[in-house]
Specification:
By secondary structure, the protein is α/β, with parallel strands linked by helices. 36% of the residues lie in helices and 18% in strands. It has 12 helices and 12 strands. The strands form 2 sheets. The protein has a 7-stranded mixed beta sheet with strand order 8-9-7-10-6-11-12, with helices on both faces. A 5-stranded parallel beta sheet has the order 2-1-3-4-5. Strand 1, helix 1 and strand 2 form a beta-alpha-beta unit.
């Protein structure tokens, strides 16, 4: 078989198939997904020897399962009273996103050899770098809105390089890993990057993102060439069509990262201070032989928006979203895409 089997065994049919549909929608996973809702069909499965990982509900589990010698068995815990405490347990009653994240984290750690993941799409991943030397000009709001709008029709990954992003507070979430962890795992075992990413990716309104570094100093010393290497590996081992980089002055070799972007968007304002900063930035690029960065940069002087959503999950419904649809998308795609 080209892929290994992830089997889901749960007598709750609706639950089992809903989880299967979610996992099957992740195009770059190493598994074929099988679903079983009764013991007879499970134990008589002709492909039992190919089952790499079994996700089994607590009430379906019994000792006979262990005799099947399946490499990885994960219990979907309901009461927490399963007989075999040695097996890995996942809380059954949580989001499909969290369940998959825990599966991939466990599988990546426990499997010494993982099947290679190769991009199946023919299109090159487009990298959009968003950077401005001007402060408080909606760069991150612009980036997130653009990303969420792209994610409606294109698989999109967003990376934020702010020193203090505040994402955990704004999304009311606790993140178990962040961008610094991704770079660490990439440096140690790049062959596991695709699987590690699946255990780290969060989503906001359809947009995938790796949580920004909680302690920015953990990114200190990472050169621009290392970031570019990571981006190339993401393209090679994933199905992302767009990679959005919300960049800041804190990133080492910023201009080298920008040089490797396909599109660069710089947000500006009309006031004298903003224009002076942009002018100094552009002169510095020219003097340091980074004129090619300027050549693929589009500057956006955003109007004053009176209706900006307060929640990150609702950005696609504000005036900024309308601006991106009518102004930015035609520049990015050559025409305004149909909704």
């Amino acid at each position: 078989m080209d892929k290994r089997i992830l089997a889901i065994y749960d007598s709750e049919e609706d639950y089992a198939y809903r989880l299967m549909e979610f996992i099957a929608g992740k195009t770059n996973l190493p598994f074929e997904i099988y679903v079983f809702t009764n013991g007879n069909k499970f134990f008589s499965c002709p492909d039992m020897k190919d089952i790499e990982c079994l996700l089994i509900s607590e009430n379906a589990y019994k000792r006979d399962v262990e005799a099947l010698k399946i490499p990885h068995i994960i219990i979907l815990s309901e009461s927490g009273e399963n007989l075999n405490k040695a097996l890995h347990h996942i809380n059954k009653y949580q989001s499909c996103e969290n369940i998959l994240r825990e599966i991939m984290e466990y599988y990546t750690e426990k499997s010494p050899v993982l099947p290679a993941t190769l991009r199946t799409g023919v299109k090159k991943m487009q990298i959009i770098g968003i950077y401005t030397p001007v402060g408080r000009c909606l760069q991150t709001t612009f980036s997130l809105t653009l990303g969420q709008m792209l994610a409606r029709k294109h698989k999109t990954l967003y990376l934020n390089f702010e020193v203090y992003s505040g994402f955990a507070r704004m999304l009311s979430r606790n993140f178990s890993s962040d961008l610094s962890d991704l770079m660490y795992y990439f440096s140690c075992a790049r062959e596991k990057l695709a699987y590690r990413m699946e255990s780290m990716v969060e989503t906001v309104n359809g947009l995938d993102f790796i949580p920004p570094a909680e302690i920015y100093q953990n990114l200190a010393g990472i050169r621009g060439s290392q970031w570019v290497d990571l981006f190339q590996e993401i393209e090679k081992s994933s199905e992302y069509e767009f990679l959005l980089l919300d960049l800041s002055d804190g990133i080492l070799d910023l201009w080298e990262v920008l040089r490797n972007c396909d599109f660069i968007y710089t947000i500006s304002r009309e006031d004298g201070m903003a224009m002076a900063k942009i002018e100094q930035y552009e002169k510095a690029l020219e003097s340091m032989k980074y004129g090619d960065v300027l050549a693929k940069t589009t500057k956006w002087k955003l109007p004053i928006f009176h209706k900006l959503p307060l929640r990150l999950e609702e950005l696609t419904y504000g005036d900024l979203a309308g601006y991106i649809k009518t102004k930015v998308f035609p520049e990015l795609f050559g025409k305004e895409p149909n909704e």
